[in-house]
Structure formats: C-alpha cells, structure tokens
Design goal:
Tyrosine-protein kinase ephrin type A/B receptor-like domain-containing protein; 34% strand; four-stranded antiparallel sheet; transmembrane helix; Lipocalin; 6 helices; signal; mainly beta
C-alpha cells in the first residue's frame, strides 16, 4: 500500500507542473496543434486564436457577403483552442453547434480551471439562417453559448492532441499522448458526459503513441500518428495507423515501413516526439459515401495511403499508395468529395522543411474501391480557378462538407469551392464573383468556355476537348462532339476546319553538304586554293590576293603603286 504522504507529494508535484507549465503557442498560426477549420452543409467555423474569436459562416454558401457570417468571442481569453469539429452529416438547421478542444494557458483561467477542456458552442437563435438571407438581414452571433464545458486537470500539458466528431455530431473523441476520452454532450447523465481512459490502457503493447490525425465513422475510428521507438533507437518514431471501435478499443493496425534504398528509408523522425511541428502532421478522411475507403496522408514521407476497411469493421488493409517524389508535404490534407472523387493537398517543402516551394490541390475524379486512379484529373489553382489576390499561395489544409471543398491558407484565408453541375465549373475568379470580396471567398457557377467540357458533378474545372472533337458553346459544355474525319480539330477546338482549307508549308531547309574529308588541314588547303564563281567568293579568296600581289611586284610601274599604298597606310590607324 502506498503511504499517504507519497500520494500527496505526487499530487502536489503534478499540480505544480501544471501551474509552472510554459506552454505558449503561436496564436497567429492557423497550422499549430490542430485543425482550425470545420464545415458541413449547414455551417463553417474557423478558429482565430490571435483575436480569440470564431468566424462563423452559415449556409446557403451561394455568395460571399457578410450578411450570413458573424464572430463569436471566446468564453475565456486564457483558452487556447487546438481544434474545432462539426459532424459531416450534422444537418440540423435549428440551433446548429460545433465542438472545440484545447488547453487553458497557464496558470489557470478566470474560473480557476486548468488543463485540457472540451465544450460545445450552440446557436440558440430561433430565426434560421435562410430567413436572414431571404430578408437580406445581417445574422447575429449573440445567441451562441458554450455548453457542457468540461476540464481535465489531472494531466500535464499535451503537445499532441486531436479531435474527431462522429458524422451526426452526437459525440466526439479526443486522443492525446497521455489520455483518450469520449465526450457525449447530449447524455442525460451528467457523469457520462466525458469518459476518460489512460492511453496506456488503449494502445497495444503499452506503447507511447502520439496522435496526429483522426476521423470517425458511425462504426469505427481511424487514427494516425507516431509510435515512440525510444531514445536509443536509430529510428526515433514510426508512423502507424490504428483502426478502433468508437468505444476506444483498438481492432487492427498498420505500420509504415519504407522501401529499402529510398530516401524515406534514411529518415529518423528525430523531431516527431518532442515539440509539435508542422513537418510531422498527418491527415485522415473516411469516405462518407463508402465507409470502407480511407485516405491517410503522411506528408513527412511525401506519401498518400489508400486503405480499405473490412465489412465487419475489424480489419484495415493498405490497397495502394502514391509516392510523390523527393519533397515533403504531399498528403498534408485529404478530403473525399464524392464516391469516386477526392482532393489531396500537396504543399511542397524541401527535405529539411526550411524551404517552401509551392502549394497545389490535386483532384482525383476516377477513384475506385482500391485506389485513386491512374493520374491527377485537375490541379487547383488553374486558369479557371485562381487563388485571387485575397488568398495567399501557401495552403495549409483542406476539408470537405463533403460535397464542397474548403481551402485554408497560412494567414487564415478561406477559399470555398461549391460543387457544380455538368457543363459548369466553380469559378474563383474574383472579377466574376457576386457580392463583396469578403472572407471566405466563395466560388460561383460559370458555364464551361468553348472548347472545354465537364460531364459530372464536382468542384473541378472544365477539361479541354480531346483531338478530333469540339465544343462550340452553342449548348452547355457537357460533352464534346466529334469532328468530321476530314476536318482539323486540335486539342480544345471550338470549331472544325476543313482539311482542304489548310495549306501545307514546309519549314525544312536543306543542310549544306559536308565535305568528304574530315581532316581540318585538308579542308583548309582545299578552301585556300578554291576561288568559286561569285564575286564575293573571288574577293575573299586567298588565291586571288596572292596573284594580285605577285602581279604588282613584277609590273613596270610597281614603284608608283608602292608609293601610293604607303601614303594610304600612313593615314590609317591599323591598330
């Protein structure tokens, strides 16, 4: 039995570590410690840590004005929010709500609490957002209130902690290095609102697991992170993916092993176990249209993983992967957009993560049950979908609603692309957008231009008509029509040109015939004793000037010519 004095000293040391913690996150970063953006088809929420507010944008997302957005102040200025979450199918238009998780900045908040907190912000306004839009009135955030705010003060600071919400918004899971818990804000029993379990009782083999990303389905949860290999291990930590029940029981796992002789095989992941770093973030998304398909992004290895979950939700299998080469950042964000459509963020960095190169969102529209398909279908930004002047080029994350795509940049700017019907694309050109240039920038549906087409629903751009087809834009650009066999129709043709109207012009020129001899002395001698038939060839020929000098030296009046030549040379500066 442990003596009471030892137990009391342990509690005091634990409290002292909390009170003296020096946790001071960068409140200006939208990429630190968790996901600062969440959205569904009812509401979008962005965490703005610097101003200690939540930016809330209500649906319908059909124009970018300030009438359907407002700001909610934190309930306490000492609360630092790690992540925000909303259920993807949380469709309630009345009293919409969102989840938050974070930590109290030391030593305590205004109510004397410390440690980790989780809560639910609810809008109790009885007037629907659509009614505000119809009446052209500005919506108010005064009706938002924090509910079921709970604190965990028995644990020290958590450097790694992720939040995931079930699709219908009925519960949330929080996974940290020292603990995991289930948060049920709608239970009738106050004691069951939060159920905490020590992490050592959850992860297999008593490992130290540092979660980086998670997503929850109604039947299971996928968690990705690093397992600490110990300070004496050559590889400091190892990426791993867990399949869990929603009661926090691990059912299966998959660990990353790089191919021998690749640059990934030389990684030690030395910086993944101590302080949080954007270099070692991960991403997870379960396909809401087919729950057996899962995407996991490992940007620290520049790899995207495609998993399938068994029909009984107990096994996870890697079916394909994409290695994007010798940079970092591929897979920093992943988002399913439809059954066979997905978006992957490639925010490319150098291998030491000191140099940022570019950010692009890859769109795959031909995914199947085991892979995303052979190639990228479209890339954002493009000529039809530029980022514009209000969105900086550094993209840090992407999420889906799930049919539409939200792009978050490093300064908190949001580009929201709405899915469009066939024949139209989601234009982000601010010169074509309705409303004011506020944040978020919301796309507008625009008809495909001539020579292009789009035959499915999605956020991607229109594609050029292939060789031998055209789209004159007389009708919606759903398909391209075939050109006549005798017509000329290049890539992206608007109209066909009859082949008889084309004139063949050869730009080829005959190359001068090379001499038979390749010995340069012989070529020099051959040219020296060659005069040619043209005046220019005679004038520059060495043989011509040799005969001219010989003629002048034997001519009877040579002394007169000599004096004349000397007079000429005296007046010339040969240097």
């Amino acid at each position: 039995m442990v003596p009471p004095i030892v137990y009391e000293l342990f509690i005091l040391s634990l409290l002292w570590s909390r009170l003296t913690s020096d946790f001071a996150p960068d409140t200006k970063s939208y990429d630190a410690y968790g996901l600062k953006l969440a959205a569904n088809d009812v509401m979008m929420v962005e965490v703005r840590s610097d101003s200690k507010t939540f930016l809330v944008q209500f649906a319908p997302y059909n124009y970018a004005t300030t009438s359907l957005q407002c700001s909610v102040n934190y309930d306490d200025s000492t609360h630092y929010v790690y992540s925000v979450g909303i259920g993807s199918q949380q469709k309630t238009n009345t009293t919409p709500y969102f989840f938050i998780v974070g930590e109290v900045l030391p030593p305590t908040d205004q109510s004397g609490h410390n440690g980790t907190f989780i809560g639910l912000w609810r809008n109790n306004d009885t007037t629907l957002a659509q009614q505000y839009a119809d009446a052209e009135q500005t919506i108010s955030c005064d009706y938002f209130q924090i509910e079921q705010l709970k604190f965990l003060s028995d644990y020290a600071h958590q450097e790694f902690m992720v939040l995931t919400v079930d699709p219908y918004g009925q519960f949330a899971l929080v996974l940290a290095t020292d603990f995991v818990f289930i948060y049920r804000p709608f239970t009738n029993n106050c004691n069951d609102v939060i159920t905490v379990t020590k992490s050592t009782l959850v992860w297999p083999n008593n490992v130290t697991f540092m979660p980086r990303a998670a997503d929850t389905d109604i039947n299971f949860t996928i968690v990705a992170g690093f397992v600490d290999q110990g300070p004496n291990s050559q590889i400091r930590s190892k990426p791993i993916v867990y399949l869990m029940s929603n009661n926090l029981v691990v059912l299966d796992s998959w660990s990353y092993t790089p191919t021998n002789s690749t640059w990934q095989s030389r990684l030690t992941n030395a910086g993944s176990t101590g302080i949080w770093s954007a270099m070692y973030v991960m991403s997870v998304d379960i396909n809401p249209f087919d729950h057996t398909r899962v995407l996991v992004g490992l940007p620290s290895t520049n790899t995207l993983l495609f998993f399938t979950v068994s029909n009984d939700y107990t096994k996870i299998t890697l079916t394909s992967f994409i290695d994007n080469g010798g940079n970092l950042g591929f897979g920093k964000g992943v988002a399913w957009l439809a059954l066979n459509q997905a978006a992957v963020l490639n925010s490319a960095y150098s291998l030491d993560y000191n140099t940022w190169f570019s950010s692009q969102v890859y769109l795959y529209t031909n995914a199947n049950e085991t892979s995303l398909g052979a190639a990228v279908t479209a890339v954002i930004p493009n000529t039809q979908q530029p980022l514009g002047t209000t969105i900086s080029p550094l993209i840090i994350n992407i999420i889906s609603t799930p049919s539409s795509l939200a792009i978050l940049n490093g300064s908190g700017g949001i580009l929201f692309l709405l899915a469009t019907v066939p024949g139209y694309y989601a234009s982000t050109d601010t010169s074509k957008l309705r409303g004011t240039a506020t944040m978020p920038v919301i796309s507008q549906q625009v008809t495909c231009i001539g020579g292009t087409y789009k035959n499915d629903i999605g956020v991607h751009s229109c594609f050029p008509c292939v060789n031998g087809s055209k789209n004159s834009r007389d009708t919606a650009g759903i398909v391209c029509t075939a050109c006549a066999s005798s017509a000329f129709c290049p890539l992206g043709a608007v109209a066909e040109v009859d082949a008889s109207e084309l004139q063949t012009i050869s730009q080829a020129q005959a190359y001068p015939k090379s001499p038979e001899s390749t010995i340069f002395d012989e070529i020099l001698i051959q040219n020296m004793f060659s005069i040619g038939g043209s005046f220019h060839c005679i004038l520059v020929s060495p043989l011509f000037w040799t005969f001219t000098v010989m003629f002048c030296t034997i001519h009877p009046k040579k002394h007169i010519w000599r004096e004349q030549i000397k007079k000429v040379f005296r007046q010339m500066d040969l240097v």
